[in-house]
Specification:
The complex is a heterodimer of chains A (about 250) and B (about 200).
Chain A lengths: L1 H9 L3 H4 L9 E3 L6 H18 L2 E6 L8 H12 L9 E7 L4 E6 L9 H17 L3 H18 L1 H11 L8 H19 L46 E6 L1
Parallel strand pairs in A: 1-2, 2-3
Antiparallel strand pairs in A: 3-4, 4-5
Helix pairs in contact in A: 3-6, 5-6, 6-7
Chain B lengths: L5 H21 L3 H37 L4 H16 L10 H25 L3 H4 L2 H36 L3 H8 L24
Classes of the chains: A alpha/beta (about 250), B mainly alpha (about 200).
Chain lengths: ~250, ~200
């Protein structure tokens, strides 16, 4: 109740009030639970998996949930990082908050069918929590990641899904972009046509056009990742997954 | 138009295009765009409540197998589910305060009954370790969380839409171009609805 009330009050401010660790790679160990070589091994595993399937699986540890419930924090973090493709929403996040003794697997819309709430819960209770109870964070995170990856690649249903996912989706036609291109072309052509005349078409300078396309409030989609570093690709999550404590 | 020299025609076309672009930049499309977003957020809310309703019969059956004497709580859950499902939800629900309040109340009552059922379950260790029950419980938890997220998204979408309707220039645009646009209802925090079940021994 208190959490909900606080949540409702905080909604308009959430984007400002909450700070998230930057998405520096597939393993964001902000709580410093892993040794460098463990981090590198995990990172390599996740990268190999992503190269094979395009699913973005990210492991994060945070020193504090900043007073939020882990479900809420994980969902906001997932959306902030935009894990998974924009169209497929094929991201998953394993979030560990050692100080609150909470762990959560947050699943993007597109993977909910494979990595169900019940399976996520089973991973947490059987693979992750027992290790965490013994203080073995690296072991728990590693076992949890392995379980997530094996479920995502495992059963027949999953392969069915992958077959659908694999088909390269056509880039949807964007009318706004097309309109701008059209406009620019038009402008260039008309300049060329009037080039012989002393009078300039369109007096003065042309300021930049500001085109607002309808954004989805609260669910930030979009975002273009340039080459190089690791980043989310516009995916979102609707709160699928499970959480647990130890 | 035909008689005009070519550059003038181009300029006329350009003017029309710039005008339409300018209009969309100043937000003539904001009201319907935000309305559609709020509506789709609403259907997600309904979706997730429906998902919860679909889980309940199975849950009730499983609990019955282990805790037959808890008939009262089980009946409460079944009845609350029936009441929540009876409420007709259509497009007008979001703009009609009375209908929206009924919907919210019925769902809150179901949340309360479910909370009591899960609290009762704590007394049955055998049930608590039953694999079927555990799977159902995690699905229910997941659904409750999805409901929370869907409600959060809906509240945010409605906030954006209602703000657009109530502020200038959206208010003027709506009055002239979209006279049928109405502000939407939003969720309020209700006592007891989101409180985790208390466990008493």
């Amino acid at each position: 109740m208190v959490i909900l009330a606080a949540l409702l009050l905080l909604i308009p401010l959430a984007a400002i009030a909450q700070t998230f660790p930057p998405l520096t790679g597939r393993v964001v160990d902000a709580a410093n639970l892993l040794q460098p070589q463990e981090r590198a091994a995990l990172e390599a595993k996740l990268k190999a998996y992503e190269d094979k399937t395009t699913d973005q699986v990210v492991v994060a540890t945070v020193p504090s949930l900043e007073g939020y419930a882990i479900e809420d924090y994980a969902n906001r973090l997932f959306r902030h990082w935009q894990l998974g493709d924009k169209e497929k929403d094929n991201g998953a996040l394993l979030l560990v908050a050692p100080n609150e003794r909470k762990v959560r697997i947050e699943v993007g819309y597109g993977l909910e069918g494979a990595l169900t709430d019940a399976l996520s819960k089973v991973i947490i209770t059987t693979a992750i929590a027992p290790q965490f109870q013994r203080g073995n964070f690296a072991g728990g995170i590693d076992a949890g990641t392995d379980a997530v990856l094996s479920i995502l690649t495992g059963d027949a249903e999953e392969w069915q899904r992958r077959a659908e996912v694999r088909e390269d989706a056509e880039t949807p036609f964007d009318p706004v972009a097309a309109f701008i291109i059209f406009l620019v072309l038009f402008f260039i052509i008309s300049r060329m046509m009037s080039a012989g005349r002393p009078r300039r078409i369109g007096r003065g300078r042309h300021g930049p056009w500001i085109v607002t396309t309808g954004g989805w409030p609260g669910r930030s989609r979009g975002g273009w990742s340039g080459g190089g570093g690791f980043s989310g690709r516009g995916g979102s999550s609707g709160g699928g997954g499970a959480s647990g404590s130890w | 138009m035909m008689g005009l020299p070519l550059p003038a025609r181009i300029r006329a076309v350009l003017t029309v295009m710039v005008l339409s672009l300018g209009l969309s930049a100043c937000g003539i499309n904001n009201v319907p765009t935000l309305e559609e977003q709020a509506k789709s957020a609403w259907s997600e809310v309904q979706n997730q409540y429906q998902r919860r309703a679909d889980l309940i019969p199975n849950l009730v059956e499983t609990v019955k197998g282990f805790a037959r004497q808890e008939q009262e709580v089980l009946t409460q859950v079944t009845e609350a589910r029936a009441r929540a499902s009876q409420i007709q939800v259509d497009a007008s629900t979001v703009t009609d305060p009375e209908q929206f309040r009924r919907f919210q109340e019925a769902q809150n009552q179901l949340s309360g009954a479910l909370g009591r059922l899960l609290a009762t379950v704590e007394r049955y260790p055998e049930l608590k370790s039953n694999a079927n029950f555990l799977a159902l419980q995690s699905q229910l938890e997941g659904t409750e969380n999805r409901i929370a997220v869907a409600r959060r998204d809906y509240i945010e979408a409605v906030r954006a839409y209602n703000t657009e309707l109530r502020t200038i220039p959206g208010r003027w645009i709506a009055a002239i171009v979209y006279p049928e646009a109405e502000p939407m209802q939003t969720f309020t925090a209700t006592a007891g609805a989101e409180r985790p079940p208390e466990v008493k021994f």
